[in-house]
Amino acid sequence: MKIPITFLGTSQAIPTAKRNHTAILLSYKDENILVDCGEGTQRQFRKAEINPCKLTKLLITHWHGDHVLGLPGLLQTLALNGYNRKLEIYVPKGTRHFIDLMFQLFVFKGKIDYEVFEKEGKIFENKDFVIEALPMIHGTACLAYSFIEKDKIRIDKKKLEKLKINGKLVGELAKGKDVVWNNKKILAKNLTYSEKGRKISFIFDTAENKNMVEIAKDADLLISEATYTENEAELAKDYKHLTAKQAAETAKKAKVEKLILTHISQRYENREKILLNEARKIFKNTELAEDLMALEI
Ligand SMILES: [Zn+2]
Ligand SMILES: [Zn+2]
Question: I want to staple 142 with a disulfide (CB 3.0 to 4.6 A). Which of 18, 72, 138, 282 is the partner?
Answer without folding.
Answer: 138
